[in-house]
User: What shape does this take?
Amino acid sequence: MKLYRTTQGAFVEEDGRFHLISALASPEAWDELICAVDLQNRASAALTRNSAASFDPATVLAPVGSQEVWAAGVTYYRSRNARMEESKDAGGGDFYDRVYSADRPELFFKASGWRVVGHGKAVRIRSDAKWSVPEPELTIAINAAGKIVGYTIGNDMSSRDIEGENPLYLPQAKVYDGSCALGPCILLSSEPLKSVIRLEILRNGKTVFSGTTSLSELKRDPQQLVEFLFRDQSFPEGVFLMTGTGIVPADDFTLQHGDVIRIAIDGIGVLENTVA
Assistant: This one.
């Protein structure tokens, strides 16, 4: 089952049929739904109770309300190599190798809910960055109790030249207006997801980069990432956690205004954003 947040309410989709699960009458209604201990049961009940409802794809919003978005870094070998290469002149290459091998994962704050853009909306590149890329990532939806309730697609926009200059500049490379996109829905499942992530970047209608990776290459177990995130931290409205990227464009590639970024994960769908 897939859960969508829209301006019309929250919908559950299965086999191409959409069913209204909540009218989302208040701003808090989405938060309550995400954190409901019986979310799966409520979604299943909506499928059997309601007749198919009218669903307008143009009304889809990012599947986030008051939740924070966090991210894990250096969780794929490809990412480890890229981080080491971009920071070698600053003497930070060994830093990322040690992060990749350490028991404790790298976790950092990415965005508050109001900063997140959804499918079809615009992401941004920093005005003071010269080397910017999207980072396609499986993103975990977690309730307030620390339980995985589902998965969505994330775009962790990144300024590689800023992070490469000094690892301590990571927040500036990662956290800015238009740096985070989630969507288009949440795949409701607590089971580990084993599928493929695909990235395609189009410029003037032509593909200028494409790449794939498998979630089997993710070094960190998602449940382990969740456990570390919830150590000495609470998330009363739940939280989203990006799990890192295994697709990194070549060092001579940087995003440009007008580029279209398409990220697909088998079983979830496609998240598409244009660079503003």
